[in-house]
Every structure is written in structure tokens, then in C-alpha cells.
Amino acid sequence: MPDHSPIPFGQPIITDADRQAVMEVLDGTILTHGPKCQDFEETFASFMGGGISVTTSSCTASLHLYYLYLGIGAGDEVILPAISHVATAHAIEITNAKPIFVDCSIDTGTLDPDLLEQAITDRTKAICVVHFNGIPADMTRIMAVASKHALPVLEDAATALGARWQGKHVGLFGDGAGFSFYPAKHITSGEGGMFCSRHKSAADAIRELRAFSYDRTLNERKLPGIYDVKGLGLNYRMSELQAALGASQIRRVGDFLKARKENFLHYKELLERQVGFRLLESISADGEDSHYCLTVFLDSDMAGHRNDLLERFKDEGIGTSVHYPHPLPRLKYYREKYGYDAALYPCSAAIADGSLNLPTAPHVDRADVEYICQTAIRLFGEVKK
Ligand SMILES: *Cc1c(COP(=O)(O)O)cnc(C)c1O
Fold first, then answer.
1. How much is the pLDDT for 151?
2. Site to substitute for ligand 1 among 66, 94, 156, most atoms within 8 A of C-beta
3. Is 87 in the pocket of ligand 1 (CB under 6 A)?
4. Mean pLDDT, the chain, as a whole number?
5. Given 93, 149, 227, 289, which is the most exposed site by the fewest CB atoms within 10 A?
């Protein structure tokens, strides 16, 4: 039995202020279409330092809505990195467009800009980049290729709240961006997402598409129940209960980010002299990570022990996670539909098969990091024997 209480990989920090914010909604009369979503959107945009924010039901919904807005469909192609959460690919696939997977950089897990241009065809309609585990993609080089080909860029920033490139928050480089408030992410609303854009036209369109493409919102209707529908919108709204929690959480995001960064740096210091792995982080001075987790990327001679290590960490009560268990094109659905050519995605596969993530979130304190590092060093030694 481990001599330490279990440390989960992710655990939201819910305070009395959070509870009070949600109770206030329950004690009122407005559960959706209300002021809490607006408050969350405005507070979020001000943290971002620009752009327009629109609450949605999830990051996946935000990505899907943007493709709907672009009118992407059958016969179109969208480029995305081969390593990400399946949501990044499914949001394209659900429109009937074809996902075109591009390998990542081995140093950061983000889309390799050297491989981007050769993936563009006359069917390409958009480029999706992912800020992998909160490490910003090289937005300078990606935007240069995108603008040369006049292609819109969507940023999957699900794990990148607080990440910056050249001092500017990610999500403000491309034409649209999605953030996630799933419980393990930087802040939570239970489930939920935010669509962000520099373009008012895109934000306005997403606002309509997330609510059935009504031609007027509930509050704009002169007669109750009288509206028209302009397009094929969905119900991808966030509720007031979720927005109240999200709005309360975003007000503490500075503390959350500080705790994650301190944990990350402490891990780095304690693991610096260890061999057998390296830690993924920005390699460019332009990048400022959001320290979503500590990505331990095992050396190739250690990679075969990854699942053994996951099991040993589990037995010790230490939460880990894997981002992600397969390169996207190797997932059953994509493999069977499009075939899988392993030669195309060596870096994505190496990260999927040879990395594991340790917790940096604010529920982890300095002593926990020390305990996790001591245990990790012991476990790495044990599996090597
Ligand atoms: C979590 C995650 C998503 C999905 O977010 P939801 O809000 O759960 O839809 C998408 N992309 C990445 C990179 C993620 O980590």
C-alpha cells in the first residue's frame, strides 16, 4: 500500500464563491439565455486581452461550429496535427470533410510547420493547430503559410488557457479558437467551452449557430415564440449554471496558472539530473506554456516500459494520463476509414507510445511534487532492471 494519500491527475478546485455563484442561478428564474453567459464571455475576453468570446457547450462544439460557419463539407479537406484529442479530428469528420493529418514536431508535439505547406491541396479549406498540452504551436510560421494560401486557421486551445506566443494569448492568432472547461482543464464549468475570434463577423455567426440559427435571441423577440430560422444551427449553448461556475473560476485563473507553473518548475528542478526521458516544453523563446501537465517523454530504449510505468504509478496512487493513446489516424475509426501509414507520423506515434503525463494542477502542492518525483525516480529505476 502506498504511504501517501492518492493524488489524482486532475481535480477541480471548487470554492465557496463557486458554490454561491451556482446557487444564485438556482435561486433565480433564468437557467439559460442569461446574464451569466455574458459575464463569463466578457471576463474571459478581458483575460485573453482581445477578441470576442462566445460560450458553447464544449470545445468540441466550438470547433464544429467554426467549420459550420466556414461551410465546410464533403469534398473539402482540413489539415490538423496527427497527435491530439480525438475531438480535433471528429469536429472535421462530422462535417463530411476529410481530415488531413500532419506529423508533429518531436520537441513540442505541435504541428510541424516544415510539413504544413506540402499538405495543402486545392481542396484544403482550413488549418487546425493544437497547442499540445499547453505548449503553443509556432504561430509565426503557421500563420505565414496560412496567409500565403489564404486559408483560415482554427486554434484548438483546449489545454492552453494562459499560453502565449510572443506575449499574445493563443487563440488570437488564427481566425477562430476553441477552449475547454472539462473538469481536468485549467478552469471548469463542469462541461463547457468558449469560441473566441478576432473577427466580429465570425463571433456573431457562431452566436447564431450555437442556438439553432434563430434570427433573434429570446430577449430580442417582440412576441414570445415568434422567430424565424436562417440556417442549420444546433443547440450548443452553455447553461447559466455552467456559466456562473466558469465566470467564478476565470476570476481565479491567475492563481491556477501560477500554481501549475510553480509545480512544473519544481518537477524540472528535481528531475533535471535524471536520465531516460526528457520533458516537453516550448523550445522557442516566443512560447509561454500554460503548464497543463508535465509531459515525460521516455527515451526510445525506455518507451517499451511506458504502460508498465502507468501501472506502477497507479499502484502508488499517483494519477497520470496519456496524451494521447494513439496518433489520430491510428484510431480504429480513422484507420479503418482512411488506412494508416505509420511512416507518415513517426513523431506523433513516438509521443503517443512513449510519453506519460504527471499532474501539475493546483490540487498538487510542493510536497506532492517531491513525493511524485521520488516515486518516479524509483519506478524508472525498477522498470529498467
Ligand atoms: C479536452 C480536449 C478537447 C475536447 O474538449 P471538450 O470541451 O471536452 O469538448 C479538444 N481538444 C483537445 C486538445 C483537448 O485536450
1. 98
2. 156
3. yes
4. 97
5. 149
Atom of ligand 1 lying closest to residue 191 CA: 7
Q: Grid coordinates representing 133? A: 498540452
Low-confidence ranges of the chain (pLDDT < 50): none
The span from the CA of 280 to the CA of 288, in Å, is: 13
Q: What is the pLDDT of residue 214?
A: 93
The full length of the chain comes to 385
DSSP per residue, 296-313: EEE-HHHHTTHHHHHHHH
CB of 242 within 6 A of ligand 1: the answer is no
Q: Ligand 1 atom closest to Cα of 323?
A: 15
48 CA distance to ligand 1 middle (Å):
19
Domains present along the chain, CATH in parentheses: 16-250 (3.40.640.10), 253-384 (3.90.1150.10)
CB 85 near ligand 1, within 6 Å: yes
Q: What is the pLDDT of residue 385?
A: 78
Positive or negative, the CA dihedral 218, 94, 141, 137 is positive
Ligand 1 centre to CA of 146 (Å) is 23
| Burial class for 274, CB neighbours closer than 10 Å (0-12, 13-18, 19+) | middle
CA distance 206 to 183: 24
Check pocket membership of 130 for ligand 1, CB cut-off 6 A. Answer: yes
Grid cell at residue 303: 518507451
pLDDT of residue 384: 86
Q: Which residues contact 278 (CB under 8 A, 6 or more apart)?
A: 297, 299
Q: Please report the pLDDT score of residue 154 as a whole number.
A: 99
Residue 1: its pLDDT value, please? Answer: 57
Q: Of all atoms in ligand 1, which is nearest to the CA of residue 185? A: 1
Which grid coordinates are listed for 11?
481535480
Q: Say how many Å lie between the CA of residue 272 and the centre of ligand 1.
A: 30
DSSP class per residue in 89-100: HHHHHTTTPEEE
Q: What is the pLDDT of residues 174-198, one digit of tens each?
A: 999 999 999 999 999 999 999 999 9
The model scores a pTM over 0.90: yes
